[in-house]
Amino acid sequence: MEFPQTQRWRLSVAPMMDWTDRHCRFFHRLLSQRTLLYTEMVNTGAVIHGDAHRHLRFNEEEHPVALQLGGSEPEDLAQAARIGAQWGYDEINLNCGCPSERVQRGAFGACLMKEPALVADCVKAMVDAVDVPVSVKHRIGIDQDESYSFVRDFVGQVSDAGCRVFSVHARNAWLQGLSPKENREIPPLRYELAYQLKREFPDLIISVNGGITTNAQITEHLNYADGVMVGRAAYHNPWLMSTWDSEFYGEALRALTREGIEEAMVAYMERAFKEDGCPWYAIARHMLGLYHGQRGARLWRQVWSNHKLKPLPPQEVLFIAREALRLGAEVPVDTREVI
User: Fold this and answer.
1) What tens digit of pLDDT does each residue of 117-157 get?
2) N or C: which end of the chain has fewer CB within 10 A?
3) Which alpha helices (DSSP H) does the chain contain, by range?
């Protein structure tokens, strides 16, 4: 599905390890037809030397979908990008934002921000290898360096190599002393640095990421940047995405219901099992936030995550889950938490 380039990056769901696999992306696409979706980060070695089918396969319905690569060797990234483009991805993204020690040991992720010349070489190699856009996801700084000049010089040097799209996680990455989870919470958010990048580089596409959980926040950021990338909020409260096509792309409001989305996912579970033997519970885990904030949601989640129900077909689990939702919704509000 083709969309105007100027709108492609308006809203996106961040690449998230162990979460944004092809089943998760299929679910998210049911909720929004316009939002740009990203894969989990895939190491270049896995793309070049591993099981490409396992790492790169995606559903045709997922477009527009971007492949995020992890690596620091220009030749390897160029080869992996070429393979990704051949598989049909709409964009190739370079990870310069992950602070985990495992990623650092591979000499890529956030630590690459300390080597902008290397990142520029990587980006140029990728740009020369593919016809689809090449983007970079990065932080605003490393460790305790909170100067704007650090991220400005990084973006300037990398953009000179041909990158036009930057997803800016508006926190520093602390390479020592914090877990990946703490790196998403402890370094302060400084959106103004992302806004300043847009002012200084008006021809670049700047998307803001980090701590964004509501449509009101998205609207505010779009006053200063080209796009917004939402992470965990889209995963834990996916129904938020059901409003995005109408609110942020001017599309007619679709008559979506949570029940209809759930039924579509059950049909997808049956299809995935026929295609490659994928069990329904490997897919259901991604939709556990569907009824977030609704009465009966807790009991509904318990059904779809109940290991004792694994032998049942998903249609039967759907029936049990609907009964749990109905019963949970009928329980008086002040007694629901003690069930």
Assistant:
1) 999 999 999 999 999 999 999 999 999 889 999 999 999 99
2) C
3) 5-8, 22-31, 44-49, 52-56, 74-87, 101-105, 116-129, 148-160, 180-183, 191-200, 215-221, 232-236, 244-249, 258-276, 280-284, 297-304, 314-330
d(CA 336, CA 329) in angstroms, rounded, equals 9
Contacts 24+ apart (CB under 8 A), 321-325: 321/262, 322/259, 324/296, 324/299, 324/300, 325/291, 325/294, 325/296, 325/297, 325/299, 325/300
CATH topology of domain 5-249: TIM Barrel (3.20.20)
Domain 258-338 has CATH 1.20.120: yes
Residue 291 token pair: 């009824």
SS3 89: coil
- List C-alpha distances in Å: 87 to 50, 56, 66, 130, 268: 15, 7, 11, 12, 21
**Amino acid identity for residue 93 in this structure:** N
Domain locations in the chain? 5-249, 258-338
For the entire predicted model, the pTM comes to 0.93
Single out the catalytic residue among 24, 96, 98, 111.
98
**The pLDDT value given to residue 6:** 65
CA-derived radius of gyration, the chain? 21
98 is catalytic: yes
